[in-house]
Amino acid sequence: MHRKTMTYRECYSHCSLLLCSVLASMAVAGCRNDLPPAATPGDAPERLLIIGQDLGAIRGYMDSNCCPRPAALTAYVDFFDILTEDDFGGLGINATGEPIDLEFDWDAGPVSAYKTATEFGVDSIAIGLSLTENEHPGKLARLVAGDFDDEIHQLAVLFAKIPGQVYLRIGYEFDGAWNKGYENQQNYIQAYRRIVDSLRSQRAANVQYVWQGSAAVVDDVIDKQHEDIYGWYPGDDYVDWMAFSWFMHADEQTSVEDSYSLPTPRQLADEILKLARAHAKPVMIAEASPQAFDLLRRTSANHSPIWDGPSGENEVSLSNQQIWEGWFAPMFDYLDSNRDVIYAVAYINANWDAQAMWGRPYENGYWGDSRLEVNDEIAARFTAEVAAWQFERD
User: Per residue in 7-33, is it b (16+ CB within 10 Å) or e — as a string?
Assistant: First the structure.
């Protein structure tokens, strides 16, 4: 992603000793006492397509007219740097609240939350708000103590400038071992709640709060066990959406011997959906991309050593049908099988291989090229499936 903090895609290099690798609109939420009721089948939100994840990727998608117009766009913000002059955390406004022309690049494409929300005529935005302590040790506890209330206020300043809905993914992928600080579940919960309470007190009425797990098999590889994600849950009053990430085939399994006995990506996603149904919350696939496929060259290759071999090696040529069956069809099947609860999907439309963070020598694993506009057949099928999911299958 565009973050200086470590995601599970970045733990290829940061967790080498562990052999890490592979990793619409609802009713507006106002102050806490004015929250809308949880979604039920009778009052469910519309089905949202979200596109990201950097400005370059979004520009390519929007300029091509290859695919459906999204309901929202994705941006990433480093919370603890929101008031620092070098990048303002990717917020796109300066300390006085004025929009700036800066597009900061953390080696994964240009970012500016303000530009993302105002440049394309798409009024709504999904923001991944990083709270990790990877580069900010000890700051979660300080956030809870109130030391970063000015940064929360700056979020409210930005949100007041956004004409549409804000889907705020606070401390996304909370269960990922690569996100330092989140392992202290109480710190995470209290930090999440402080941000929500503060934004509500400032009448940030266009914000929906998203609780996003990783649903990442690699987390279980690192931990050698499966954690109960409910330990991170901040409570129904603080969650408008539940969410997870989707990068592998739903039933993909490691081909590396002697690995910890792992659940499949489908089983981890099912865990989020089970909670969502129990708590009457809609679900967002907040990050979705066909990892290790190249849509332009029509190839696939190894994810990483712990999964299937050295990153980027064992490249094979594929037909468009094989690419579709290898990733897209399982995702759309999963959407259709869970229409009662999944109401948003955020596709990452990026040439990962051209970005320093993700390209050669693949220290963060092999990701490929997921741009839809470079493959007419995949783009056309994606367009048809999104339309069917949104409008034709209820």
Answer: bbbbbbebbeebbbbbbbbbebbeeee
Q: Let me know: does 390 contact 49? Beta carbons within 8 Å.
A: yes
> In this predicted model, what pLDDT tens digit does every residue of 174-194 receive, in sequence order?
886 666 778 899 999 999 999
Dihedral sign (CA 306, 307, 311, 314): positive
Pairing between strand 342-348 and 283-288?
parallel
Neighbours of 157 (CB within 10 A): 17
Nearest by Cα to 301 from 360, 341, 217, 251: 360
- DSSP label at residue 389: I
**What does the angle CA 113 – CA 119 – CA 124 come to, to the nearest 5 degrees?**
60
- Which residues face 104 on adjacent strands? 111
**261 with 226: CB under 8 angstroms?**
no
Each residue's pLDDT tens digit, 267-299: 999 999 999 999 999 999 999 999 999 999 999
CATH class of 11-392: alpha beta
Residue with tokens 């690419």: 323
Kindly write down the DSSP assignment for every residue of 284-342, as one continuous string: EEEEE--TTEETTTTEE----TTTTSSTT-S-EE--HHHHIIIIIHHHHHHHHHTTTTE
> Is residue 44 within 8 Å of 343, Cβ to Cβ?
yes
Helix axes 149-161, 185-201, angle to 10 degrees: 50
